[in-house]
From TrEMBL:
The gene is yjlD_1. This is NADH dehydrogenase-like protein YjlD. Coiled coil: none annotated. Keywords: FAD, Flavoprotein, Oxidoreductase. One of its GO terms (molecular function) is oxidoreductase activity.
Length: 393
C-alpha cells in the first residue's frame, strides 16, 4: 500500500522536497501531500521588488497547482497548528487531522522582534507577497497623506535592519519612489528613506569594498544609513534609537532578523533555540521519521559551532536531499548526507545596480554584472521548478 508522505510548507524546502521525492517514488509507492498556508509558492528573494512596485504579484507568487498539479502531489491550503510527532499526526487550523508515515517539516522562520517595545504592533515586515503588497499600499497611502497635510512623518520611511532584506528594499524605494512622487505631484527631495542598522556596518557578509559600493550607490539615490545604532522602540509614527535620536516616521519596516518557527520549536522534536536539530541526512535528531528542510532547521558545518545561514539557496538544496532520502527510507538504499554547495551571495541595489560574491574563490561583482547574475539566478531557479511562466510578469 502507498505510504503517506506529508510535507509541511510550500516554500523552497517543501517544494523541492515534493519535486525530488516524486522523481524517485511512484504514486503506488507514496501518496504525497503538501500543506501550505498560501496556494502559491513564493519567491522570497524577489519580494522587495513587489514591495517597491517594480514587478507584479504573479512574478513572485506561483500557484502550487501549476508547479505540482501534474506530479501527483495533493495540495492542501491550510495553516499548521500543531505537530504531534509521537502520534504521527498534524493538526491544522481548519480542524483537519493529517496522519503520516513520513513527515517533512519545511515551515521556514519567523520574524524576530527581539522584544523591542512597540515594534511588532507598529511595523510592517517582508516575508510574503501579501506583506509586500501591504508595504506598497502603505507607502502610497502615506505619500497621499503627505500631499494633503505636509506632515513630514508621512514622507519618512524607516527600514530597521541593514541585512540583505533591508538593503534590497531601500534599493527598490530609491529607484521607484521618484516616479511615484512625480505621479502624485510630490517633490522626491521631500522624502526621507532611512536604513537603521545596529551593527557597525550594513551587509557584514560582504567585503568592505562592496559594502562601500552599496552605501555610496544608495546614498546618491536618497537613502540615509544610520549604522551602530539599534532601534529601541517604535510607535505608530516614530522610531527611537539607542543614540537618543527619534525619527518621526509613519512607515516603519522591520527586517532586523529571523528566529525559529514556533510550531516546530514547541512540538517536542529535538531543537536548539527554536530550530530543529538534524542528522547529516536531515532527519530530526529525535525522530527518524521526520525530515527537516529550510530555515526551521539548524544545520552546523562539520566541526563548527556556527550554523549555516537561513537562506533560500540552502533550503532548496536541503529539499533535494530530503526528497531523495525519503525514497530511501521507504524503499531502502543508502541515504545521502547533506553537503551544501555555496554558489555565492548576490544583492540588488535597485534595478540597475548590485553587489555579489560568487564561486569558490568569492569573486567580487558590482554594478551590471551583479544585477545580471542576480536575474540569471532567479531564472535558473524558476527553470528548475518549471516556473518560467512567472517571468511574464
Ligand atoms: P539578517 O539577520 O541578515 O539582518 C538583520 C540585520 O538587522 C542585522 O544586520 C542586525 O544587526 C540588524 N538589527 C538587529 N536588531 C536591530 C535593531 N534593534 N536595530 C537596528 N538593526 C538591527 O536578516 P535578513 O536581512 O532578513 O536576512 C535573513 C537571511 O536571509 C540572511 O541569511 C540573508 O543573507 C538571507 N537573505 C538573502 C538574500 C539574497 O541572497 N539576496 C536576500 C534577503 C535575505
Amino acid at each position: 500500500m502507498a505510504k503517506q508522505i506529508l510535507i509541511l510548507g510550500g516554500g523552497y524546502g517543501g517544494l523541492l522536497t515534493a519535486l525530488t521525492a516524486r522523481k524517485h517514488l511512484s504514486a503506488s509507492e507514496a501518496n504525497i501531500t503538501i500543506i501550505n498556508k498560501f496556494s502559491t509558492h513564493q519567491i522570497i528573494t524577489e519580494l522587495h521588488r513587489l514591495a517597491g512596485g517594480t514587478i507584479k504579484e504573479q512574478a513572485v507568487a506561483l500557484p502550487l497547482q501549476k508547479l505540482l498539479g501534474d506530479k501527483n502531489v495533493n495540495i492542501v491550503v491550510d495553516t499548521i497548528q500543531e505537530i504531534k510527532p509521537n502520534e504521527k499526526q498534524v493538526l491544522t487550523s481548519s480542524g483537519a487531522v493529517h496522519k503520516y508515515d513520513a513527515l517533512v517539516v519545511a515551515l521556514g522562520s519567523e520574524t524576530n522582534y527581539f522584544g523591542i517595545p512597540g515594534l511588532e504592533a507598529n511595523s510592517l515586515i517582508l516575508k510574503s507577497a501579501s506583506d509586500a503588497n501591504r508595504i506598497r499600499a502603505h507607502v502610497e497611502a502615506r505619500l497621499d497623506a503627505y500631499k494633503a497635510s505636509g506632515n513630514k512623518a508621512d514622507a519618512t520611511i524607516v527600514v530597521g535592519g541593514g541585512g540583505l532584506t533591508g538593503v534590497e528594499l531601500v534599493g527598490e524605494f530609491a529607484d521607484k519612489l521618484p516616479e511615484v512622487c512625480r505621479a502624485k505631484g510630490i517633490d522626491f527631495n521631500d522624502i526621507s528613506i532611512y536604513c537603521v542598522e545596529a551593527g557597525l556596518s550594513i551587509l557584514p557578509v560582504f567585503p568592505s569594498v562592496l559594502i562601500e559600493r552599496a552605501v555610496t550607490s544608495l546614498e546618491k539615490r536618497g537613502v540615509t544609513f544610520l549604522t551602530g545604532v539599534a532601534i529601541t522602540e517604535a510607535t505608530n509614527n516614530s522610531v527611537s534609537l539607542k543614540s537618543g535620536q527619534t525619527i518621526e516616521a509613519s512607515t516603519i519596516i522591520w527586517t532586523g532578523g529571523v528566529k525559529g518557527n514556533q510550531v516546530v520549536g514547541s512540538c517536542g522534536i529535538a531543537e536548539d533555540r527554536g530550530r530543529a536539530t538534524v542528522t547529516s541526512t536531515l532527519q530530526s535528531t529525535s525522530h527518524e521519521d521526520i525530515f527537516l528542510a529550510g530555515d526551521c532547521a539548524v544545520v552546523f558545518p562539520e566541526g563548527s559551532e556556527r550554523p549555516y545561514p537561513p537562506t533560500a539557496q540552502l533550503a532548496w538544496q536541503m529539499g533535494e536531499t530530503v526528497g531523495y532520502n525519503l525514497s530511501v527510507q521507504l524503499k531502502g538504499g543508502v541515504m545521502e548526507k547533506f553537503v551544501p554547495v555555496f554558489s555565492g551571495t548576490l544583492g540588488s541595489l535597485g534595478r540597475k545596480d548590485g553587489i555579489g560574491t560568487i564561486g569558490g574563490k568569492n569573486t567580487q561583482l558590482k554594478g551590471l554584472p551583479a544585477t545580471l547574475m542576480k536575474e540569471a539566478s532567479n531564472v535558473r531557479y524558476l527553470s528548475h521548478i518549471h516556473g518560467l511562466f512567472a517571468l511574464a510578469y
